[in-house]
């Protein structure tokens, strides 16, 4: 029980109070109730991964490190994508970005269509999924895996890449208002299946090959 109740920093309590006050304070755009709930769910997952015992015990237990990685790279980005924060963020833009009209113009009726066209041009499903899997496997290379525990800058880069590429990855699979996936459902299933295979192989290495790949860790349930 001490593993669960200890090592909670004060920052987690402050963020929880602030989020609760914001939620109860209202001022939410109409029709975005589900998106807001999903977005706050994603933030809660990030807080759980970075400001809880899950942020302390990865230096001691390899299985806790694996749980933290899954939360940051998969679960939190999925909730953030479902939360569609760009629906609110784009309202703060004082101008539309368009090569035809130039900056400084007010948004017009075709603003949403411009955003969708730009999003389709920017999204490259196959390359995005490849980049996600390369980063996922790359951060599990022994040198980087151990270095992230010892160097804060490297750890911060790992977290940012997990969250950023995770959001891009889930955008390809489930979309997020007003953006829709570029590929048909069957192709998206293939992308997901390929990622599951890569993660399964990596999980097998973590479970069965930790003695060779990660000699600094005595085992999946023992201290590193």
The percent range for strand residues is under 5%
> How many strand units?
0
Continuous helix count? 11
Number of structurally distinct domains: 1
Distance between the termini: 20 Å
* Helical content class: 55-70%
Low-confidence stretches: 97-109, 218-222
What integer value in Å does the Rg equal?
20 Å
Structural classification: mainly alpha
Largest sheet: none
Shape: globular
| Mean residue pLDDT | 76
SSE string, helices as H and strands as E? HHHHHHHHHHH
How would you summarize this macromolecular structure in one to three sentences?
With 224 residues, the chain is mainly alpha-helical. It has helices at residues 2-5, 10-24, 33-50, 62-83, 86-89, 111-122, 125-138, 142-150, 152-174, 185-208, 210-213.
